[in-house]
Amino acid sequence: MPTTRVKKEEDFHEWYNEIVELSGLCDKRYPIKGMNVWKPYGWKIMMNIDRLIREEMERTGHQEVYFPLLIPESLFKKEEEHIKGFGKEVYWITHAGENELEERWLLRPTSETAMYPIFSLWIRSHSDLPFKVFQIVNTFRYETKQTRAFIRVREIHFFEAHTCHRDFEDAERQVEEDKEIAKRFFKKLCIPFIFNKRPEWDKFAGAFYTISIDAFMPSGRTLQLGSIHHYKDNFSKPYNITYEDKDGKRKYCHQTTYGMSERVLGAVVGIHGDNKGLVLPPAIAPIKVVIIPIIFKGKEEAIINRCLEIENTLKEASITCTTDLREDTPGSKFYDWELKGIPVRIEIGPREVENNTVVLARRDTGERIEVRKDEVIEKVKELFGKIEENLYNSAKRMLEESIVRVNNLEEAKKHEKKILEMPWCGNEECALRVEEELEVKTLGEAVDVKEVKGNCPVCGEVANCIVRFAKTY
User: Rounded to 5 degrees, what are φ and ψ at 65?
Assistant: First the structure.
């Protein structure tokens, strides 16, 4: 029995909006469009996502920092390409009270221009490198397109890692490490993705090159979850980030960044959710197990006591859980917790009390199994692993089935709501022609595809890479 008014397979976007509201993730009624209020349940999930990336940062030697929100206009304008890329998206502050500021300030759209003048003070010698920091902050961009919770907003919950290196090659090694971080991180969220090297005309403002992390949504569009940038010395020169090498010479650092936003939560909702609500991977679920007493008259005390006993057992094993003691029917409770995506439900009635058993129900498949009371920890953890494997494999099948290799535009027109792979000569005009004819965007060069065969479908020249196109958010 669906909980949602709109079915996911019939109208993904309406279903998505409904799920976000019904499950209590955020409130979109704040009077500034695209600036939503995080509700307690959504914020707990986001904090669990942040915890996972903090763990990755710690294991790879990054230190956490926190820079101010406001950036002076003079610092922002030091990198010419950067201001071209973000100039139309920033919010300007011109007054403090009734006093006009001598210099305008802006709310950070991203933090390069805030951080890098300070990096130039912190980094002095080759012994200070590699320098690796990160922060989790809010960024602000004047989004003019239709806003959508977590996917397209104006105030963005944002993770960004910044590194400085002795040379280009060491920065390249950092890019490879960032790719491995992304693989481990998104595997915990059960989200498969593809790496694409963004085209020159659509790379991050000021970057030498950009690699995007793209997931495929059930709507038939791709969602950019994050990006990895190699800056070369494009930022270190205007911001004078230099170090003294072993020979006493001063050299410019080479830099990288790795960024992700709350879009990660949007992907979790959209990819894993169903017509009953959210389906959360155990790694980020605020409550991993909910215990439902199946009350029979005259046996209430024994059933509730057993539920509380199982709750204590789970908590002692560091498994977050709760017992639902509301005066409501079991069926109503099932629907409420399914809507919130709790990975495992435990049902305990008089039969289970008598037999020293419990019933475990999986949120992802609905499968129910009866297990002995003394093996509940082992079986719950086993189910967590099976749920993660199932969610990841299901999403991976969807991604793999979405990718179609085509050799000409007529063939491409037959594949709507797919990721199109084509041979490409590397010419911008050819890619823009494909974008215009198919109403798609260029995702970029397929990083994971090494073998290139065929000719560019637009100009007929021999291809030097495989490029991906798709409808995007």
Answer: -130, 175
Q: Rounded to whole angstroms, how far apart are CA atoms 63 and 162?
A: 10
User: Could you report how far apart the first and last alpha carbons of the chain are, in Å?
Assistant: 30
363 is written with which tokens?
Answer: 């949120």
Q: What is the largest CA-CA distance in the chain?
A: 85
Q: β-strands 465-470, 441-446: how paired?
A: antiparallel
Kindly state the tokens that stand for 150.
């977590």
Residue 1: per-residue pLDDT: 54
Give the residue from 200, 197, 210, 185 showing the smallest Cα distance to 110.
210
Q: Which amino acid is at 322?
A: T
Cα–Cα nearest to 211, from 259, 165, 141, 161? 259
Q: Which residue type is seen at 379?
A: K
Q: What's the pTM?
A: 0.95
H helices present in 273-355, as ranges? 300-316, 330-339, 350-355
Where residue 235 falls among pLDDT bands split at 50, 70, 90? very high
112-115 contact pairs (CB < 8 A, 24+)? 112/79, 112/82, 112/162, 112/206, 112/235, 112/257, 113/71, 113/75, 113/76, 113/78, 113/79, 113/82, 114/67, 114/68, 114/71, 114/75, 115/65, 115/67, 115/162
**Rg of the chain on CA atoms, in Å:** 25
Average pLDDT over residues 404-409: 95
Across 357-416, where does the E strand assignment appear? 357-362, 368-372, 403-405
Residues 6+ apart with CB under 8 A from 453: 423, 463
C-alpha angle with apex 412: 408 to 413, nearest 5 degrees? 125
Report, in this order, helix, strand and coil percent for the chain, each rounded to 5.
35, 30, 35
Helix (H, G, I), strand (E, B) or coil at 86: helix
What are residue 467's DSSP bridge partners? 422, 445
Q: Is the pLDDT of residue 323 over 70?
A: yes
Give the DSSP per-residue string, 400-439: HHHEEE-SSHHHHTT-TTSEEEEEE-S-HHHHHHHHHHHT
Encoding tokens for residue 273? 């959710």
Burial of 15 (0-12, 13-18, 19+ CB in 10 A): buried
* CA-to-CA separations, 42 to 36, 95, 157, 448, in angstroms, rounded: 11, 34, 12, 34
Structure-token match 């009371």, residue found: 373
Cα distance between residue 469 and residue 419, in whole Å: 6
